[in-house]
Specification:
homodimer, five-stranded mixed beta barrel, globular
């Protein structure tokens, strides 16, 4: 049977001051009327049922995420005892599925994506699941770049594997010049949409991931606390995909965006005639290419371009769109009591 | 005896969203810890006592101004029944003084100025009063320009009159090129600090100000409502000073600023190392030459220059310092219920 694992850790501090532990990025309606995480689960309709959709998050965020996902069995929200990057989280959730369904194949995705074309997303995800079931590989989905983004990881495809490709190499967060070269050479954005069979995933971790290998028996015994205590944090990309010889990439075009910062709202929302995105009561006069998110009052912007203005929780943030992805540099310079709980 | 008349009409809509009818510009601590109007009255200490200091304002603003001026007898706050520009207001207040003191000489000033050097202000005001008492002229005080300001009126001085000068002509709100020429030619800013004897003022109005002349008997009968109904609105500059043959100008250097917009706070407040002025809880990071006024929460500005950010009454305003003097153009484009009561 097909399962889905939705990674939903992290507060989303690039969405400060709106995002908090009680209201992390994933439950914000950043790309429409619904929380991102609810869009992520509903997008799987017809591919994976909510009963087989698992969500992995931190303990602090569990209540907010369960509240945002009334269609999901409460037991499907797995709360990590400690944050340990993505490989342990996915090993836990994959083991959780395998214990109920030894033939499980797993689709792994993130809670906080924007997807423009849900049907194309489902078709691509289905193709990735079919590939891993047929070829005994572990798959990632690559999106064709629409800009030389320096904040993403890239996949350089290798030889063909049916309609998919082998993975030649990964390149994480390139410089601008490298990104332009990668785009010109046909590299793909590494979306983080992965697929594997539980059986092959276990085998690959045992082969390539010493950070997790010796801890796996704790999962077999149903003791995730002991597992998380025993692992060393490592990402799924570094811990598995960059080491495996069975990696494959499926190309997908479904208007993917990781909604990584306030500036991303310019890509995932409808803009006004001047290219602005405004959420909440706002008046933008003589203003262009700007983002306004106004929660606890009214925001008026007059005569500025390329700015981000956020009003929430008694705090106003005013910055430039080009600095929004680096918001953590700002938070590092603010008093901790103003910033509150930090997250990924 | 010497009297003072403080003009305190107008809400100060260039200080939206902070200024309102209940809290007009004059009662805001825009240039220090005290309301501007209180600084204006206290600045007269030793020159004119509070008992002989009159304040003219609109009916809506009377309560806020009395509350800000506990040292002033309540009866000294004169509430205009209708707004009719400055000449009727000053005629009323001058008549009010003359009825108690036929030999009154009157100093007229505005409630919302910044003055860097209070002692120099008093010395200049005293010189203007002495001049009008000695020479039977009506006087204005001209400040030596420190920049080619286009928002002010200018006075071109004429022949000498003791240590003062006659007035050759006025030039209201010049273009930038005209302002530069006026500064180069030794013209002075028209501060609006005036002095006259009540007797000479009455004579000049009767000679030159048909907008007021026939209404003066209403003041003699103590009926300001009939007076304001009968006058035609006209400013003291146009209605008296530009028409009189007895005008004189006293030069003063006391660091005068009319605190005309949010951007003026950059001149009248101490700046931080990056040239910013912040009032209220604010954090400015990578930001320069900007003004932040934060009343109902915390404001964070990151990576911007020359901006104005104001947070008050559930409204955030974000604009550029160079647009702050034109804030009324913005207010014209906002919903009336957001703007509230408008004023001068």
């Amino acid at each position: 049977m097909r399962w889905a694992v939705v990674l939903a850790g992290g507060v989303g501090s690039r969405f400060w001051p709106v995002s908090t532990g009680e209201r992390p990025k994933q439950v914000l309606p950043l790309a429409g009327d619904q929380p991102l995480v609810r869009q992520a689960v509903e997008r799987l309709a017809g591919l994976v049922s909510p009963e087989r959709t698992l969500l992995v998050t931190g303990r602090a965020l569990g209540p907010a995420l369960r509240a945002a996902l009334p269609m999901l069995p409460a037991a499907n929200v797995l709360e990590e005892p400690f944050a340990a990057s993505t490989a342990p989280a996915l090993a836990w959730a994959t083991a959780h599925a395998a214990q109920q369904d030894a033939a499980a194949s797993v689709l792994s995705l993130h809670a906080d994506w924007f997807v423009a074309d849900d049907a194309a997303f489902r078709a691509t995800a289905a193709a990735a699941l079919e590939l891993v079931e047929r070829e005994d590989v572990i798959a990632t989905v690559g999106a064709r770049p629409t800009r030389p983004e320096t904040g993403y990881g890239y996949i350089v495809p290798g030889g063909t594997l049916g309609s998919a490709r082998r993975i030649a190499r990964f390149k994480e967060k390139p410089t601008r010049a490298e990104a332009e070269r990668l785009c010109a050479d046909g590299a793909l954005w590494n979306t983080g949409l992965f697929a594997w069979t539980a059986r092959r995933f276990r085998a690959e971790v045992e082969l390539h991931t010493p950070e997790l290998r010796d801890a796996l028996p704790h999962l077999d015994r149903g003791d995730p606390v002991a597992f998380f205590k025993a692992v060393r944090p490592v990402s799924i990309d570094v811990g598995v995909y960059e080491r495996t010889e069975r990696g494959a990439v499926v190309v997908g075009d479904f208007g993917w965006d990781d909604v990584g910062s306030w500036a991303a709202l310019l890509r995932v929302h409808r803009r006004d005639e001047a290219g602005n995105v405004a959420v909440g009561p706002a008046h933008l006069v003589g203003t262009s290419s700007s983002v306004v998110w106004s929660e606890d009052g009214t925001t008026v912007v007059y005569g500025l371009d390329n700015v981000v203005v956020v009003r929430a929780r008694g705090i106003s943030l005013v910055t430039r769109t080009d600095l929004a992805p680096d918001l953590k540099k700002l938070l590092d310079q603010l008093p901790p009591d103003l910033v509150g709980e930090r997250g990924a």
